[in-house]
Amino acid sequence: MRMVNTVDLKNKTNELLRNAIAGDPVIITLRGKPAASLTRLTEADLESFVLRHAGIRPAETQQQGPWRYMSLRTPLGTAYVAYSELGVGSLDLADSDASFERTFRRRFSRPIHRDARPPSDLRRSLAGFFSRREPFRGRVDLTLVGPFERSVLEQLRQIPRGQVRSYREIATTLGHPSASRAVGNACAKNPVPLIIPCHRVVRSDGGLGGYSLRGGPALKRRLLMEEGADLE
Predict the structure, then answer these.
(1) pTM for the predicted model, two decimal places
(2) From 183, 198, 202, 224, active-site residue
(3) For residue range 51-75, what is the model confidence (pLDDT) as tens digits?
(4) Which distant-in-sequence residues (6+ apart) come within 8 Å of 172 by Cβ?
(5) Is 187 annotated as catalytic?
């Protein structure tokens, strides 16, 4: 723990912030008495802070039936799509049913089983989405992620094909421009990549940033180039 006075706080701000980020509590004193503290925020703390200052109300938790899934061949490989009665809630690329089920259960702590008779309208919509790059018209279920992630993902849905936004731009739209890292974390947690185009969010310095779907940044670049995005 580090004790500093208000003069130190004024003159050594960056140093003290590095201490706090590293997890070392910093106690600020005024006239020799503790007056405030700098503490590293957890991800949950940061989510709560951003939601409060952006005026975003957490979405109501909705009840839903069991999770089911289907798979289909796509130009990117075998895509596995999980859905509830509220809509599509997870999309991933996997080598087998067992691999997808294992990843889904580990990530979301929910039971899931293959649907012997997937809804025909969902299959048609997904086939058009993957083969003809048609916009996905079906419903999306975002109850698997927290309220801050939902607010970020709703912003991503507004990014047109062929365009990109930076993590900072998304954070600014939410009312808190310093939350770029939190936006990046929300993109990494996107349960339905491609359907919600987190690949259209890049770094402010022009770098691509990461991509959670199998294929990583190389796949991200490929998707953006196919969409005609300017990556210069």
Answers:
(1) 0.72
(2) 198
(3) 555 555 544 444 456 899 999 999 9
(4) none
(5) no
